[in-house]
Amino acid sequence: MSPGLFVVVAVAGGAGSVCRLVLDGVIRSRIRSDLPWGTITLNLTGSFVLGVITGLAVDAVVSDSVRMVVGTGFLGGYTTFSTASVETVRLLQQRRLLAGGLNGFGVLAGATGAAALGLWLGGFT
């Protein structure tokens, strides 16, 4: 990886983090629920877009540089599986077992499904 590409990936990561902060705040201000819909939305959409980018990269529709900038940089900052894990544990500690189970297993299954759909739409066969 060239120094210039490294800088672009880092800047894209920062931009993804800012988008995550803004989108999570907007969703939290509009939806009151036991489930952390902001984090769920971020992880599902990020997994989907990463699937699309990966599918396109496998078929050489997009370059490895684009895959690194969008996938590693932007989506690395945009998605937040560590926060999803903390929120799941917090729900379980509060004895909200159904919400915690849905959050933990639902995000895992949903993100995997979203990534698979993205791969398929991106042309990965």
From TrEMBL:
Transmembrane helix found in the keyword field: yes
Pfam families attached to this UniProt entry: CRCB
Keywords on record: Cell membrane, Ion channel, Ion transport, Membrane, Metal-binding, Sodium, Transmembrane, Transmembrane helix, Transport
GO molecular function terms attached to this record: fluoride channel activity; metal ion binding
Membrane topology category: Multi-pass membrane protein
Subcellular location: Cell membrane
Entry keyword annotation includes Ion transport: yes
Catalytic activity: fluoride(in) = fluoride(out)
Annotated GO CC locations: plasma membrane
Subcellular location, principal: membrane
The organism of origin for this protein: Gordonia amarae NBRC 15530
InterPro entries given in the database record: FluC
Regulation (activators, inhibitors): Na(+) is not transported, but it plays an essential structural role and its presence is essential for fluoride channel function.
Residue numbers binding Na(+): 76, 79
An individual GO BP term: cellular detoxification of fluoride
Summary of the function given for this chain in its UniProt record: Fluoride-specific ion channel. Important for reducing fluoride concentration in the cell, thus reducing its toxicity.
Name of this protein: Fluoride-specific ion channel FluC
Membrane-spanning segments: 6-23, 35-56, 68-86, 98-121
Family named by the database record: Belongs to the fluoride channel Fluc/FEX (TC 1.A.43) family.
